[in-house]
Amino acid sequence: MTSLISTQLNPQTETHFSPIHGGNIAQASACYGIPEAQWLDLSTGINPDAYPVDTLSQRAFQQIPYLCTAFLDAASHYYQQAHLIPTNGTQQVIERLPALLSKLPVLLPELGYQEHEQAWARNGNDLTHYPAFHLKASQEIIERALTQNSARHLVIINPNN
User: Fold this and answer.
1) In the prediction, which pLDDT does 13 show?
2) How many CB atoms within 10 Å of residue 45?
């Protein structure tokens, strides 16, 4: 998946470009023939005009964060949970969660980030949908489904991306 975008990129253009996770504007420029100055790199941590954060040391932005006891202790305290799964982002969790949980029916919003539904479907779970943008209808469908069979997973996506 690429984090690089250009306003002049033609989505119909066939490419032999290896997907990159941002940061390699020179490669993208050479591949698509678009000058480097016309690219915007949306990669995390590369913005030359970064958001000012005075309370964190520069070191926090100069190295990859590694899992450490102090982090786990702080996160456990903050979330009031003893068991946490720190990840590099939610995509990893979305992909792995169905395999980590028991294989039960799943309630999903009918509209939302489709990786959730794809992950549960790949795992072979039975899927039921509730309306994503109608609170009362969602509550009724969820309550009815849980009354019929409380042994199921409920996926709530907030924000709806």
Assistant:
1) 43
2) 10
